[in-house]
Design a protein that fits this description.
This protein is of the alpha/beta class. Among the domains are: 212 residues, P-loop containing nucleotide triphosphate hydrolases (Rossmann fold); 235 residues, no CATH class. 30% of the residues lie in helices and 20% in strands.
Length: 714
Amino acid sequence: MTTTTQPTRERDTLRAVLATMLKPRERVGVAAWADAYRVLPQGTSQYAGKWDSAMTPYLAGIMEAFSDPATEKVVVMKASQGGGTECLINAMLWCIDVDPGPALVVYPNTEMAEAMNTERITPALLACPQTRRRLSRGGRGGGKRGELKAGRLTLDRMTINFVGSNSEANLATRPTRYVFCDEVSAPEFMPSAVALVEERTKAWTNRKLMFVSKPGHEGTGIHALYLSSDQRTFEVPCPHCSTYQRLKFAGIRWEGGRDADPDVAEKTAWYECAHCKQHIDNPQRAAMMARGVWVRKGERVRADGCVAGVPENPCRTAGFTFSSLYVVGLPWGYVPKRFLRAGMMTEQIVTGDLGEPWAPVGASAELAELKRLCVPVARGGYALASRLIGHAGANGTAAVRLPPGVVALVGAVDLQRDRAYIEIRAFGERGRDSWLVWYDTRPCSVDSPDSLEILNDLVGMTRASEGARFVDADGIPMRVGAWAIDSGDGMRHREVYAFTAKRPHVYASKGRGGSQIDELYHLAQVDYAAEFAKGISAGKVKLMHVNVDRYKEFVLAQIKRAAGMVDAATDAATVGLRTRLEGKQTSGAGGGGQMHFPADCAEAYLVQLTAEQQVREVAKSGRNQGRPMFVWKMRPGRSDNHFFDTCVYTHALADMLGVERWTVQASRAAREKMAAAEQAPPRAAAATTPAKAKATATATANQSSPGHERWEVV
């Protein structure tokens, strides 16, 4: 007879506990883990609380790629504030809880790495119960935030070290399984760090490396890593025709086009489907993103959302790129507003908002291209104002008539040791078109006292007393608005300061490389009394610092556009947005604009305008040492580039005057008002004190200067 033993409560409990302990843990991907356990702590995100991948659907595919055994590297080339760093933190916390191993976190420098740990990663670790329980008890971590080190986190099953890319010793001596590199394209990030960390992981067959950054220059940093990947893009379906497409800035439209108010553009912008041309409004974006699909280069998405095709570069490196157009929290008009406020498509907008590398267009121009722009007068061109100096306007002969559409004139002088190179350039409505009006070379030796006095007749064109030497197409007088005189490399800056200090519409200027100045130009005041021991009274000099690298890119891109060398149908988000010129053209309404040259322009001028070319080389010193950089070099066989410099300075001066906001009608009205004021009889002078007279003179000079009410013609 068999006796059946009734199971006791203790036995059932023991079996349940053993079954739970011995059951293999279900492996979940990073995205699913983040949705289940990740908590965004207060103070680190505006969306504090439980993580929800539905808010940023494009990040889910990136996180899943990290936990995919078939993927070894994950490269994320992204727009700023798009969630890329949070994606990196999710992957790091997943490693701590699910698949531990020694990890290395690399930032451009040690200070940034430790600050990132203290401000973002440690709070995220402590906010999540699944990772907080992994803190070592009694070890260096101790489970208390106060004992977590800025440069090192010691957990129960792994250690995470935080180092800077500039610390080669720390990178080369730490074998590791996981590597997380952020801000790879930052100027301070050492390019050699990528190779070093890859070398440290080669002993691990299941290694994982993640690189995250907004892009920098084309072919460098994160962009170089992305090009070596399978190059995935996020495509979303049109809510009207269901056609999948990648979102691009070229698809955004807004009311008013290029001339719209930035705030109006932000409120009225919509996205135009590349296929059915229907409007896609902001409320429709969330549904589009939820149905989005990551597509490798060579693949395509059918209308049903299934991916077809063969990837061009199947490999173990998954590369992702996305722009701020995918961020549902930002309206369609966010980028257009920034674009219109800047007046151009800047490097910050291209790399930070569109998540695309900055690549200069027009690295060099050929003489033949410029000659095609010298249109004969019989075919609608114009002639050089060769009779300008000493013969026009001021002595009774007819003033030079400018081409239709001109709203402003500016001049520039490039000083050399023995001569001065001079040009006057006209600008059209909104600063889009420009015309070379006159140029000349004058003896101006540094050894001659008061040598700059030969420029008096030129800079005098800004004064009413000299009379107008130019008239617009309707015969209304037009004067040169301002002059820029190159202060040089230190050889002639003192005499330039002394010369410009006495003349309100004449600016000293100095060229700066792109690595020395972030803005296109910067207007500063210099106390020239400190430059001279005697002979000159104290005062301020207006010194204009010019980003010559950026303006040279613009000038050559404008030449190529005018010569037909840049295809007008080229995608605006890949080429057109990378230069100041193309930025001016890309808007809801399109636009024109080019450089014009006189029919009788001498070849000597054109040769100097094409004297330089932009080349890529590795920086040998400075903060960018070891990084590939774009630099301007003299072309073989060329020796002079002085008129290239004057052309650059005239464009910078036009921008400083705000010409890009001027219209033909407003410019004409302002000049008519100015002419009427000059013809009015002078009012009787009232008795005044010397102090009051000085204050009045100062106010008058300020009112006449560019940038004040007299020059703000719109």
